[in-house]
Amino acid sequence: MPSVPAISLRKGHAVRHNNEICLVTETELKTPPRMASYVQMSLRSVATKKVFNLRLTSNDSLEGVVLERTPHEYSYKDSSGYHFLNPDSYEDMIVFDDLIEGVKDFLIEGQLYTLLIADGAVVSIELPLTMTMTVTESSEGVKGDSANNVYKPATMETGLIVQVPLFINQGEKINVKTEDKSYLGRA
After folding, report:
1. Are residues 109 and 59 in the same domain?
2. Does one domain contain both 122 and 89?
3. In sequence order, what E strands does the chain have?
């Protein structure tokens, strides 16, 4: 794979650093006065989860890794990991707990997710920007307690707890922003 200039790398790109596949988690271009500009970035190793903080000049480059983005349907979880099915080839991909940590609150059986695959191994899971989820548990709103925007906790079908307005009841479908796990509105 050709080298990629450090200045063009963005969050979510994959590179090879110290002979490990790493995902770019943060990048920031800094231009201090009377000094040459540089790129400050954080990389997370897919295999070891170790974080590397790099400071590269705008002329430096890293070896890029091709990321294949393929849609997979979440099937189930068992002792070997989380199972995702490719709807085209019916190939079963097993994703281990360490990669699921940030997205497991959004895994719904039968839902399509984009798996990022590098060198035949899953390196990350991309969530959609919003997801429609069903409220499984929510306390009743107190009448007259609506002077301001008052929120109450509601438990979703995956166990995720979202702060919702008082008028949302058990069994309703709502839209949840996956970036910060916030309520967006009724579905």
Report:
1. no
2. yes
3. 3-5, 14-17, 20-30, 38-45, 51-57, 61-64, 68-78, 81-85, 92-95, 112-118, 121-126, 130-138, 151-156, 161-165, 173-177, 182-186
CATH, residue 47? 2.30.30.30
CA distance 150 to 153: 11
When divided into structural domains, the chain yields a total of 3
Query: What's the whole-model pTM score?
Result: 0.73
Which 3 state secondary structure label does DSSP give 8? helix
Q: How do residues 132-187 score in pLDDT, each as one tens digit? A: 999 999 887 666 555 667 888 999 999 999 999 888 889 999 999 998 999 998 98
User: In one letter, which amino acid is 71?
Assistant: P
By residue range, what is the domain housing residue 25? 3-64
